[in-house]
């Protein structure tokens, strides 16, 4: 694969992803400027030589597209998006708000899948729900006399 410095420079200028830009610089320094991959990776990018070899190999096999991150699948969700849409609609209809344990029980009743309370907060954040937080009305509302009376007294 013939790679010109002008092509790599043009792609570098238009690329928005910082990781891809770093990999483009690596490719340019090694293939165009004829420098050693290990030295460039360790001295200029503070990376391991194996990092450089990996990205140079991906560039040689697939070109510029090889420098981009591949999608990661992850674990597939146990509940379909349609079921979650129904639950989300039901939650948004109640203006009073919900507690996480109540939402956890609703999801379990409707789908048979039990999620941890922490994951319920992740789902709510993903669905763009904000937590209902009580107002801090009584913070520092006590007078100095009330604070002094509340403090413990030393025993003699």
Structural account:
There is one protein chain. The chain has helices at residues 5-14, 18-32, 37-44, 49-62, 81-93, 100-111, 117-126, 144-150. With 156 residues, it is an all-alpha fold. Among the domains are: 5-67; 81-126, no CATH class. α5 packs across α6. The relative contact order is 0.07. The model has no long low-confidence stretch (mean pLDDT 86).
List the helices and strands and how they pair.
Layout lengths: L4 H10 L3 H15 L4 H8 L4 H14 L18 H13 L6 H12 L5 H10 L17 H7 L6
Question: How large is the share of residues in beta strands?
Answer: under 5%
* Overall mean pLDDT: 86
Oligomer category: single chain
Q: Count all strands and give the number.
A: 0
- Helical content stands at 55-70%
**Helix-and-strand structural type:** mainly alpha
Specify the number of helices: 8
What is the H/E order?
A: HHHHHHHH
